Amino acid sequence: MASQLAEHLLNVLMISSIYVLAALGFALVFGVMRIMNFAHGAIYMVSGYVCYYFWVVLGFGPWAALPMTMGVMAVFGLFLEKVCFRPFQGDFEKATVMAIIFVIVLKTGADLTVGPFTKRLPSMLQSVIALGDLRVDADRFVILIICVVLLTLLTLFVQKSKIGQSMLAIAEDKDAAGLQGIDINRISAFAFAIGCSLAGLAGGVMGSVTVLNVGSADSILIRIIAVVILSGIGTIGGIWTGGLIVGGLDAVCPYFLPGFASDLVGFGLIVIILVIRPKGFFGHEV
Amino acid sequence: MTKKGQTKSFVYGGLMLLLFLYPLFMSTYRIHLANLVLIYVILTSSLRAVYISGQLSLGHAAFMGIGAYVSAILAKHLGWSPWCTIPIGGLAAMTAGILVGFPFSRLRAIYFSMASLFFGIIITALTGVIPHLTGYLGGMPGIPRLFGFSKVPYYYFFLILTLLSLLVLYRIERSRIGMTLKCVAQSYLAASSRGIDEARARIRALGIGCFFAGLAGACYAHYNTFISPSNFSMFPSIFLVVYLLVGGTRGFAGPIVGAAVLFLIPFIMGGLKGYAPFVLAGVLAVVIFLIPQGLISLPGQIKLLMGRPRADGRVSQNAS
Amino acid sequence: MLLEITGLTRYFGGLAAVSDVDMSVDKGEIVGLIGPNGAGKTTVINLISGFIPPTRGRIVLEGKDATGKKPHVLAAMGVGRTFQITPFFAEFTTFENIVASFYLSADKSIWRSILATREYRRREEEILKQAEENLQLVGLGSVRDELARNLPHGHQKVLDLATALAVKPRLLLLDEPIGGMGQEEMDLALNAIKKVRAQGTTILLVEHNVPVVMGLCDRIIVINYGRKIAEGTPSEVRKNEEVISAYFGGEYAA
Asked: pLDDT tier at A134 (50, 70, 90 boundaries)?
């Protein structure tokens, strides 16, 4: 019984931390460039397959494949920023269309190449961790650790480093930041690269927990946006909270409520928050 | 009538003739496509009605869904005639839009857009409340038809409905109502200091747009005889937005052109099968990079390139 | 009294931007509201026109309570205003801006708009006529079909005045109507204001340019640090020691 509880708790924490990873990438781009990268979900989805390629097809194994996936996605992020989104900075409408273009391209590409096959990333550590009476899946535990470590590193990076501070500054007041000499293009490139590499990690890691499928793009996107709405813009710590809430709701609600109702409750809640406190719990006015 | 006015009438008249004669020359498949295009034209134009008040709804398809489900349920389970249930579907969607507007139209534009992303999910979830009626995720089959099995009567019905809807929407946009909505979109300070209640205007815009979306949705339900929540979720909504933005936001014809052209591209490229979406993506990219003001600005741009004056008398790109 | 204000107070956080101000404006008067930078003049205008709700106090317009009501409600009650930073409808032309501002006079029914009934058309034609008059009154006839956003700054300010008139104001609040204008533009604007005044409109005017205010207004109210420090005719106020020290920091005490 306690083992089951521990298993569930671990699950919730792990899923939440993956949501946080993915949401952070989205939030960074939104904060710095004021655009919603609707393709973020698709990027996450593709990352799972990229990771599969490195891990299984090329046989590099998880510990090499994950960083490589992150690297590849980071480069992709740089490309996205420079070629596709920089021309449309601040233009929410055009950037939305641009993001949709990528969703179409990525999803169709995925459909055509891997769509019919379900792939599953193998377990990273084929073992179980035993702590006294509790037995939990080592995989999930390790994933949780990886996510938390990375998130901590990233939070520190954003809060302490010059680049990170610049990101927060731009998120708060773009014009003021520009006047202070911050190179908005350079910081935007960083935001995109980091964002995509985080999505890369999230996608790769999630792939070893569940199956890889093209449909994951949509479901993660809506959750990412829910997290960002809850936490608000311009806060990193807030994303943790948002992620925990959404991850928690996702994990807990299905036990008490039938499928549709948990969606209704979860997203209805988000919508109510938006009306009462649009800037989220921790963010500032956009 | 001026020469220009004469030319315009001639063109419109010719267009009308072609539209009404279309089914005589076209295969069933092409008539089917035309039916879908007509529905999407209504949908995208109804999105514009909301857009001109300064609200970009990323969940408009959800209201299409409300119209579709209400009409379908009344017709299938209560046996009412679709001729009655379709307008009821429109009214239901309109009511939903107004109700949604009360809390949401007070929000700033970007927050409204964020909230609207969830409309689709909430509709999907709502169908789960009465699954015995809606079929929930599996969809709802067996919706009573409006006509028989031929697609032709549908074509004429949709054509007339589209023309009427466009007429009404056009009148609204050009009238004091439309002007007021555009004021609200442009400046809160100016609008409210001149007596315009911003929230009320926005709710009105939502009501109008959602009515036509519901109407279109109900028509689709009784045409396709099958609907499912995925027809009305986030990405169908975002596609409507893309049709609107790429078609052009500066003119009433924007959504019409956008919907017609972009919807048909994957079908025109039918030979490419699964690769068709790439063509669509390519067209979208070409438009946003090279024709930023949308497809409807194309005639104007071409005239500029050829050095001829545009409709507004300008010969060059510079402000007059 | 057209406008009566008692105990008007507004706090922002712990700071009182406006503190216990009593003032009144009589029908047909043109009253000037002056004071050093940051004295709270624009805040008073925002409070009267409903863009900011007061923390305390009462505003009574023609005997009716006008405290803390929304801007569009006050516009319907007859409060028109211009702004320091002129807002306008950027996609509309000068003339369209004025026409759009006649919202209160228009037929707002959706059905009648769609069907373009006789009643609707009659009202719109009436509006077009009046808009043309306003356009000529303020002297913007030459830029009638220019996009509002392409107008020079001074013209935009005058356009602001023309659109404010569209609500057929009982009380017109002018917030720095000649701010940042060159001489030519100032003449245009002052001309317009004088014509409006001549029509009998009651005006409350906030302005930095003290000589202009002195020349234009029947009465002047001076505020500093959110409080009223003086009130009277221009000549009275000019000699008031507290006013002088407020503006010049005591250097020119008489």
From this structure: low
The mean pLDDT value for C230-248 works out to 79
CB–CB contact A104 B129 (8 Å) = no
Q: Please state, as a whole number, how many other Cβ atoms lie within 10 Å of the Cβ of residue A133.
A: 9
Question: How far, in Å, CA of B143 to CA of B161, rounded?
Answer: 20
**pLDDT band per the 50, 70, 90 thresholds, residue C253:** very low
Q: Tell me the H-state helices in chain B.
A: 3-25, 28-51, 61-77, 82-104, 109-116, 119-127, 131-134, 152-174, 176-186, 188-193, 198-224, 234-247, 253-268, 276-290, 298-305
Q: Kindly give the residue spans of alpha helices, DSSP state H, lying in C52-205.
A: 71-77, 94-100, 110-115, 118-137, 153-165, 183-198
Residues of chain C contacting B193 with CB distance shorter than 8 Å: 49, 51, 71-72, 75, 80-81, 83, 87, 164, 167
Instruction: Please report how many Cα atoms fall inside a 13 Å half-sphere around the Cα of residue B211, on the Cβ side.
Output: 13
| C191-228 tens-digit pLDDT | 888 888 888 889 999 988 888 888 889 999 999 888 88
pLDDT of C69 over the 90 cut: yes
Tell which of B193, B200, B206, B208 to mutate to test the C interface (max C CBs under 10 Å).
Answer: B193
Q: How many C-beta atoms surround the C-beta of residue C80 within 10 A? A: 27
Structural domain that includes position A105: 2-214
Structure tokens at C96: 């369209």
With CA atoms as reference, the chain B residue closest to A35 would be B110
Q: Which helix (H) or strand (E) is C7 found in, with range?
A: strand C3-12
Kindly give, in sequence order, each residue whose CB lies less than 8 Å from that of residue B3, ignoring residues fewer than 6 positions away. none
What are the tokens at B226? 């099958």
Nearest-angstrom CA–CA distance, A217 and A227 = 15
Q: What is the pTM of this model?
A: 0.89
How far apart are the CA of C121 and the nearest CA of chain B, in angstroms?
A: 10
* Interface present between C and B (3 or more CB pairs within 8 Å): yes
What does the pLDDT average to over A259-286?
77
pLDDT at A126: 53
Query: Which of A163-167, A278-282, B288-292, C10-14 shows the lowest per-residue confidence on average (mean pLDDT)?
Result: A278-282
Residue A54 lies in a domain: yes
Structurally, chain A folds into a number of domains equal to 1
Residues with Cβ within 8 Å of A145's Cβ and at least 6 positions away in sequence, in order, are: none
Q: How far is B61 from chain C (nearest CA, A)?
A: 24
Chain B residues with beta carbon closer than 8 angstroms to that of A33? none
pLDDT 10s digits, A77-114: 999 999 888 888 878 888 888 998 999 899 888 888 87
pLDDT band, very low/low/confident/very high, at B268 (cuts 50, 70, 90): confident
The reply to whether A239 falls in a domain is no
For residue A108, tell me if it sits in a domain.
Answer: yes
- Residue A98 has its nearest CB partner, among B122, B126, B288, at B288
Radius of gyration of chain A (CA): 19
Helix H or strand E segment including A94: helix A92-113
Residue C22 has φ and ψ, to the nearest 5°, of -110, 130
ipTM value for the complex: 0.89
Interface test with C, best of B171, B176, B179, B208 (most C CBs within 10 A): B176
